[in-house]
Amino acid sequence: MADIIDGKAFAADLRGKVAEGVAEFSAKAGRKPGLAVVLVGEDPASQIYVRNKHKATVAAGMESFEHRLPADTTQEDLLALVAQLNADPAVDGILVQLPLPKGLDENAVIQAIDPDKDVDGFTTASAGRLMTGLPGFVACTPLGCLMLLKDRLGDLSGKTAVIIGRSNIVGKPMAQLLLRESCTVTIAHSRTKDLPDVVRAADIVVAAVGRPEMVKGDWLKPGATVIDVGINRVPAADEGKTKLVGDVDFASASETVGAITPVPGGVGPMTIACLLYNTLEAANRREG
Ligand code: GUN
């Protein structure tokens, strides 16, 4: 049976380390690191995410600046807020919660964020810095996946990695991160031919396609390390109930592979921990 990679425990440990770093920063700088989170509209899922981010930020000893704007906020007003946060010396990191309500230009808002405060790693400047090896911020989910992989495997150099999914937020930055670690990287996606054979060649598999339990145990190389980014809600065995599953069929995969992240409790908890990590890093760079 595979080892289970405990993302929840790793994230708790990382949050503890960030809190120590925050205490050191605050003693030196005479202020706390600050994270500004902007939420536009009433999307229920976004409200929960933002509340969780606020709690985690405060628990780490940082300043949390929450900006809640009505759904009918204009592009101009939103851009003015981002400009104000860019200029505010108390703000080290800026996160604009996505999706934005219809009518707002998401891309224009994200690109307006100062790359040195882009703790989500969503600006094209951050993507370009990652691609060219310059210091910048890496999107939280792929960064969390990399931390789990390095903790499990140590040096990743020379390993064969297959990423399933090509999104700007996970698949593409994940590929860049693994390339930076000297892996041989393949990005597979919905049009990839003979996907099971492609996946079977991999020492490292990162599944980020958003299809419940798509990757089966017999697609995987024995001993491989599997990171499951999927969070899919599906009907449970109990009538009327639902459950969360990943993009990997955990039951069959865990009979073949060396190690695998569970869903929930794998990659999920790493995302907020990495947001705090990036915010502390932003504060240290700005003061340094
Ligand atoms: N919406 C869902 N996840 C995220 C995230 O990580 N960052 C932002 N900005 N919006 C999101």
Question: What this model shows, in words?
Answer:
The protein has helices at residues 7-29, 44-59, 75-87, 106-111, 124-132, 140-153, 171-180, 195-200, 250-253, 268-287, and strands at residues 3-4, 34-40, 63-69, 93-96, 160-164, 184-188, 204-207, 225-228, 232-235, 242-245, 259-260. It is of the alpha/beta class and 288 residues long. The protein has a six-stranded parallel β-sheet with strand order 1-11-8-7-5-6. Strands 3-2-4 form a three-stranded parallel β-sheet, with helices on both faces. The chain binds guanine. Guanine binds next to strand 4.
Question: What's this model, at a glance?
Answer:
The protein is α/β, with parallel strands linked by helices and 288 residues long.
What is the fold's blueprint, element by element?
Blueprint: E1 3-4, H1 7-29, E2 34-40, H2 44-59, E3 63-69, H3 75-87, E4 93-96, H4 106-111, H5 124-132, H6 140-153, E5 160-164, H7 171-180, E6 184-188, H8 195-200, E7 204-207, E8 225-228, E9 232-235, E10 242-245, H9 250-253, E11 259-260, H10 268-287
Parallel strand pairs: 1-11, 2-3, 2-4, 5-6, 5-7, 7-8, 8-11
Antiparallel strand pairs: 9-10
Helix pairs in contact: 1-10, 6-7, 6-10
Bound molecules: guanine.
Guanine binds at residues 49, 95-98, 120, 140.
- Major sheet attributes: 6 strands, parallel
Shape: globular
Helix share, percent:
40-55%
Ligand inventory reads: guanine
Could you say how many structural domains there are in total?
Answer: 2
How widely separated are the two ends? 47 Å
Number of helices: 10
Strand content: 15-25%
For the secondary structure, the number of strands is: 11
Reading off the top of the CATH hierarchy, the class of the largest domain is best stated as Alpha Beta
Strand order within the widest beta sheet: 1-11-8-7-5-6
Indicate the CATH architecture of the largest domain.
3-Layer(aba) Sandwich
Structural class: alpha/beta
- The fourth-level CATH homologous superfamily of the largest domain is NAD(P)-binding Rossmann-like Domain
Could you give the order of the helices and strands? Answer: EHEHEHEHHHEHEHEEEEHEH
Radius of gyration: 19 Å
Q: State mean pLDDT (0 to 100 scale).
A: 98
Detail the poorly predicted runs: none
CATH topology of the largest domain: Rossmann fold
Function: Catalyzes the oxidation of 5,10-methylenetetrahydrofolate to 5,10-methenyltetrahydrofolate and then the hydrolysis of 5,10-methenyltetrahydrofolate to 10-formyltetrahydrofolate.
EC number: 1.5.1.5, 3.5.4.9
Keywords: Amino-acid biosynthesis, Histidine biosynthesis, Hydrolase, Methionine biosynthesis, Multifunctional enzyme, NADP, One-carbon metabolism, Oxidoreductase, Purine biosynthesis
InterPro entries: Aminoacid_DH-like_N_sf, NAD(P)-bd_dom_sf, THF_DH/CycHdrlase, THF_DH/CycHdrlase_cat_dom, THF_DH/CycHdrlase_CS, THF_DH/CycHdrlase_NAD-bd_dom
